[in-house]
């Protein structure tokens, strides 16, 4: 194989790995932010439910106080029934008592609704309280894992960048310039495998003579269509099992 072709193939592989690592490294802050936002939302919802539960308890206490005040008025009205002097005054007093009792029923309905809401809230608050420490631990563990992966990615990228420099230095200047130029216009992919007479990058059929020459891997040729450097990977012969269970090359 042409020495520049061998090095430029490895250079392409190294660049692809560096690009992949860069994406992972750049994605980490957003992943951590998402995890932290999930925890913050969980805590915020928990605190809001606790506030609502406290407000619910105050509202019920206020409503129960209203009922007590009305009951006292009813008791007072009932005492006054014995002091009225006319039937008209008696009926008016009874009507007022009925109105007050109707108000009590309405307030009691409100209290019942508040009690039902309080039961639901109390259940949610208890469940969230039981999960809270676990959620904090889960997020902390996940963030620690991501940061550890990031450190490993940074170290791996550093090693690959050293190897990239070695490969670049080993290339002849014309090939190095050609690689960088193609890489710049082809979204980081400067090489393409030739297979079955086609360029696998742009899927355009190669000239027979050019394809034959590419298969030797003894020179650097570029695709007439996309301009990428072409290389050929020899197919691995299919293997079959002989009668003794040993693998053997087909046709042998």
List the helices and strands and how they pair.
Elements: H1 3-81, H2 87-170, H3 173-185, E1 191-195, E2 198-199, H4 208-214, E3 221-222, E4 229-232, E5 239-241, E6 247-249
Parallel strand pairs: 1-4
Antiparallel strand pairs: 1-2, 3-4, 5-6
Helix pairs in contact: 1-2
Quickly list its features.
four-stranded mixed sheet, Helix Hairpins, 252 residues, 6 strands, alpha+beta, two-stranded antiparallel ribbon, rod-shaped, 73% helix
Strand line-up in the sheet with most strands: 2-1-4-3
Radius of gyration: 41 Å
Helix content: over 70%
Could you say what the CATH architecture of the largest domain is?
A: Orthogonal Bundle
Mean pLDDT: 92
Main β-sheet: number of strands, strand sense, barrel status?
A: 4 strands, mixed
Strand portion:
5-15%
Number of domains: 2
Task: Give a short synopsis of this structure.
With 252 residues, the protein is α+β, with helices and mostly antiparallel strands.
What features would you describe in this structure?
With 252 residues, the chain is α+β, with helices and mostly antiparallel strands. The protein has two domains: 3-170, Helix Hairpins (Orthogonal Bundle); 173-232, no CATH class. Helix content is 73%, strand content 8%. It is built from four helices and six strands. The strands form two sheets. A four-stranded mixed sheet has the order 2-1-4-3. It has a two-stranded antiparallel sheet with strand order 5-6. A hairpin with a 2-residue loop joins strand 1 and strand 2. Helix 1 runs antiparallel to helix 2 (87-170). The longest helix is centred in the middle third of the chain and has 84 residues, at 87-170. The protein is rod-shaped and about 125 Å long. The protein starts with a helix and ends with a strand.
């Amino acid at each position: 194989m042409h020495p520049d072709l061998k090095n430029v193939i490895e250079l392409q592989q190294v660049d692809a790995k560096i690009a992949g690592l860069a994406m992972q490294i750049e994605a980490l802050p957003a992943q951590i932010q998402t995890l932290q936002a999930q925890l913050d939302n969980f805590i915020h919802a928990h605190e809001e439910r606790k506030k609502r539960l406290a407000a619910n308890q105050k509202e019920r206490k206020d409503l129960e106080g209203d009922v007590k005040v009305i009951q006292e008025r009813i008791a007072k009205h009932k005492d006054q029934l014995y002091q009225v002097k006319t039937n008209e005054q008696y009926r008016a007093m009874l009507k007022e008592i009925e109105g007050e009792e109707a108000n009590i029923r309405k307030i009691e309905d409100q209290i019942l609704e508040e009690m039902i809401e309080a039961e639901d809230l109390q259940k949610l608050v208890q469940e969230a309280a039981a999960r809270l420490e676990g959620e904090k631990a889960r997020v902390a563990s996940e963030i620690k894992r991501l940061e550890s992966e990031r450190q490993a990615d940074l170290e791996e990228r550093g090693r690959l960048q050293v190897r990239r420099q070695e490969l670049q230095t080993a290339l002849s200047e014309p090939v190095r310039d050609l690689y960088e130029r193609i890489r710049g216009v082809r979204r980081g992919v400067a090489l393409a495998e030739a297979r079955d007479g086609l360029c696998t990058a742009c899927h355009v059929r190669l000239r027979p003579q050019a394809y034959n020459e590419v298969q030797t891997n003894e020179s650097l040729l570029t695709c007439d269509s996309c301009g990428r450097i072409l290389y050929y990977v020899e197919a691995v012969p299919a293997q079959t099992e002989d009668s003794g269970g040993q693998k053997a090359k087909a046709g042998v």
